[in-house]
Design a protein that fits this description.
alpha+beta, 5-stranded mixed sheet, two-stranded antiparallel ribbon, 35% helix, 25% strand
Length: 184
């Protein structure tokens, strides 16, 4: 027979608390709250820094896939193996959003979202954080950008400022950005 916990139970050793047993639902909620707090702390950190951004077109024009591959230290034979692996795996991405401003904004069209790599010169306000995680090797930039746009659209944004892209050979690191609204 399984016991169902209605509230956390404290485990003691020699009269001192050493562990807590709690329902999985409470544990998952606690983890979610910690993640939200980390996102807010990250937003405060990046908001306080002076950043230089550039338009997406400028970033893409300066990006050379061959140079990027060599800089990561992938040898020619490694590049061939990587190419074969890419044929076997689809490049997909997923996102999470954290709203940070008061009031709910109606979702917008994905196609209307501007993608920026620099803060715009016109006034704006940040309405949420966007994190994009790729799920496979070699997710295309277009897939990653589309995921940033989709997440920003769900928050009702006008644009998304991409602050970092997923990186690494296995793309295990998440990319981060800010969903913004134009201030009139």
């Amino acid at each position: 027979m399984k016991a169902v916990l209605s509230e956390p139970e404290i485990v003691t050793r020699h009269g001192k608390p050493v562990s807590v047993i709690l329902p999985i639902k409470d544990y998952e909620e606690l983890l979610e709250r910690v993640e939200d707090a980390q996102d807010v702390a990250w937003l405060k950190q990046v908001s306080s820094k002076s950043r230089q951004y550039r338009p997406l077109s400028e970033y893409l024009a300066g990006r050379n896939p061959r140079t990027a591959t060599r800089q990561r230290g992938v040898a020619t034979s490694g590049a061939v193996a990587l190419s074969l692996a890419l044929l076997l795996l689809c490049g997909c991405a997923s996102s999470t959003t954290t709203p940070i401003s008061g009031g709910k904004t109606a979702p917008t069209s994905v196609d209307s979202i501007e993608v920026l790599f620099d803060p715009p010169s016109r006034p704006y306000k940040t309405i949420g954080l966007v994190t994009v995680q790729t799920g496979s090797i070699g997710a295309k930039d277009s897939v990653i950008q589309r995921e940033f746009k989709s997440a920003a659209a769900k928050l009702g944004a006008d644009a998304v400022i991409i602050e970092s892209l997923p990186a690494g050979i296995l793309n295990e690191q998440a990319g981060r950005g800010r969903a913004i609204l134009w201030v009139k």
